[in-house]
Amino acid sequence: MSKKKKKKKTHVPLRLNVLFFCVFLLFSSIIVRLGMVQIVHGEDYKNEVNRKENLTVSNPVPRGKIFDRYHRAVVDNTPLRTITYTRVKGSKPEERLETAKQLAKLLDVPTDKLTERDKKDFWILLNKDRAKAKITKQDDADLKAKKIDDKQLAQRQLDRITEEELNELTADDLEVLAIKSKMEGGYAMTPQIIKKDVTPEEYAIVSENLAKLPGVDTTVDWDRHYAYGDMFRTVLGGVTTSDQGLPKENQDYYLVRDYNRNDRVGKSYIEQQYEDVLHGTKAQVKNITDQKGNILETVYLSKGESGKNLTLTIDMELQKKVEQIIEEEMKAAKASGGAEYMDRAFVVMMNPKNGEILSMAGKQFGEENGQRVINDYALGTMTSAYEMGSTVKGATVLTGYQKEAIAPGEVIVDEPMKFKSTDWKKSWKTMGAINDLTALQQSSNVYMFKTAMKIAGVDYVPNGTLSVKQKDFDTMRYYYSQFGLGVPTGIDLPNEMAGVKGNAVGQPGKLLDLAIGQFDTYTPLQLAQYVSTIANGGYRMKPQIVKEIRKPTSKPEELGKVVDSMEPVVLNRIDMKDEYINRVQEGFKMVMQTPNGTGYTNGFAGATYDPAGKTGTAQAAYAGPNAKEVRAQIGDRSIYNLTLVGYAPASDPEVSFSVVVPWLSGDQNPVSKKIGRRIMDAYFDLKKQEVNGNTGPIEDTKKTNEEE
Asked: Which of 103, 302, 573, 644 has a Cα-to-Cα distance from 444 of 20 to 30 A?
């Protein structure tokens, strides 16, 4: 018994020792693990505990390109090496100042746009004690007594900073200020461009030092490149800079669509109208930061997609030629005399069958450094209106047919007309008994006067009165509007002008002026839509400037897939018989192709492409620069607008056009006819080259026309 007890006593301590040893190993492993957590991974776990997820940031992508109808690049993007800064939430001005100082050592930044206020604020930041001393005890007392507020106190401090003190800022200080101003120009977590188009050396050295420059990044940005220079620029529109950012008037519209405040957007015309297409889908980036705002991790949610590309209806080679012709003929008109007030000219060319605009050109004389220059004014084709003269007589004749005031072939006597207490109203020559075709061919005013009177239900009585009511004006304008005269054309661009209706109250004779295009005003684009409606047999087509939208591609030589194609849109079919339209078409053909036609001499004599059209001359009031002074010198109705409309081939029209040259001193200058002939020659010459596989520049046609 005693032996067993003794044996048991020796066995128990052994088990305890094993147990103690196991506990020792367990505690040792725990201590080692705690050491690993606290010493090796402590900072990581601390950041993980403190990390928070920011809102998703959207980074801009390259803007969509714009091509002409033959896929020549019109607007492209030029890639630029760029330095950006993203301000994290909670960052302090002192920290940004230090980053700006470091960055200024690596970049050459312009300082010419710094304002005096910028410099004063920076001086205060660099000289806190001296700046504090500029606030007097009286200032503190006024603030305490609520005689001034904090803003007024700060202004007193700024006002007391002298020019000598500002001159203490060195060139290096100003560079730091320029960088810091850009760093603070936007909102937190939104990349701000510090410098665009940096040199390769600057890009490389900043890239090497990114670890020492919190928030700074190197990237590739872009600028818009206009392949044809200033040509067609007013219609192409423009894009804001990153400094301008979102236009204030549309800021809310863009912000709810995930734009940043410093995003570049289209600010006018095509760039603005198709902003949603050209802007693209932004890259989505989510930044993970700690509680101090330091970025711990960047997660790319999507790479985004460049903006979609636009294909225009414009033929840029034709556009180039048309603009050249306008400039040359404007200069020639100036040199020939009688054009001292003429400062602009317009051309619109379109396909009458589908409404596609082929060329939309306008030029205007200006002055630069005391020298006369010619500027792009293509926008004037749709934003300025003029009395167009006899070009509208086709609409007058058709209105007369429709209202049964006249019948096709009806003969009317062209004679001087005299109403009570008025001047004589007559044509440019007395034509005697003529029919409707001759009236169009030789541009009879009297035929149109008497047609308008018949529409109003009144007969001509020499030295009698003219009884015309407002409804008669309304009737004429209603039928004119079916052709697009006096109403918006519907073009896919903003800010189109509809023209101006003359005030006919107490002036019944103005109905006669309306019938010959010397009362209401119309735009050159409306005039082109009008003649296109006659050319195609009575369908008013919506003018279109964009032909299709395509997906972007990574290879410049490839065209992306078509995602949207703009189909032709018929706005209305004029409420007139085909035989009426055919009759006017015949008259328009006689204008251009017969020796007595007003568009034949100095115009379309010898043209081989079967032209048709109508000339116009309107005696109008000058409405250009310094209008009041000029009118005081020359009178109210002593200026002439020269116009021309047409199309070809008359048998199967494929191109129509309008030419408008306002404010010449006389009505004999052939400038509008010369422009019209040359642009049509250019169109058909270019067409021949395209058939032969050559879409390059075309030969000048001026010499041939002058010889004819």
From this structure: 573
What are the φ/ψ torsions at residue 172 (nearest 5 degrees)?
Answer: -65, -40
Q: Which of 262-271, 493-502, 554-563 has the lowest mean pLDDT?
A: 554-563
The residue assigned the tokens 């200080």 is: 173
Token output for 28: 């040792």
What's the confidence (pLDDT) of residue 706? Answer: 35
List the Cα angle 300/306/312 in 5-degree steps.
170
Q: Which of 333, 342, 338, 380 is nearest to 527 (CA)?
A: 380
According to DSSP, the β-strands at 309-312 and 66-67 are: parallel
Alpha helix (H) residue ranges in 163-304: 163-166, 171-183, 200-208, 233-236, 251-255, 269-273, 275-278
Percentage, residues of the chain above pLDDT 90: 63
Domains identified in the chain and CATH numbers: 47-91+215-312 (3.90.1310.10), 92-187 (1.10.10.1230), 316-707 (3.40.710.10)
Furthest-apart CA atoms within the chain: distance in Å: 163
Contact 587, 448 (CB under 8 A): no
Active site residue 481: no
CB atoms within 10 A of CB 111: 17
Q: What is the DSSP string of 380-446?
A: HHHH--B--GGGGHHHHHHHHHHTTSS-TT--EEE--B-BTTS--B--SS--EEE-HHHHHHTT-HH
Q: Is 32 exposed, middle or buried (0-12, 13-18, 19+ CB in 10 A)?
A: exposed
Cα–Cα distances in Å, from 445 out to 294, 387, 430, 616?
Answer: 80, 15, 10, 11
Contact (CB, 8 A) for 406 and 400: yes
Q: Which residues contact 288 (CB under 8 A, 6 or more apart)?
A: 51, 52, 53, 54, 295, 296, 297, 298, 299
What does the alpha-carbon distance between residue 173 and residue 177 come to, in Å, rounded to a whole number? 6
> How many Å apart are CA 216 and CA 200, to the nearest integer?
17
pLDDT band at 704 (very low <50, low <70, confident <90, very high): very low
Judge residue 178's burial from the number of C-beta atoms within 10 Å of its C-beta, 0-12 exposed, 13-18 middle, 19 or more buried. buried
User: Distance between CA atoms of 585 and 207, rounded to whole angstroms?
Assistant: 70
Length of the chain equals 708
Q: Out of 384, 390, 532, 658, which one is annotated catalytic?
A: 390
Name which residue leads in pLDDT, 290 or 347. 347
CA distance 210 to 327: 53
Predicted local confidence at residue 705, as pLDDT: 37
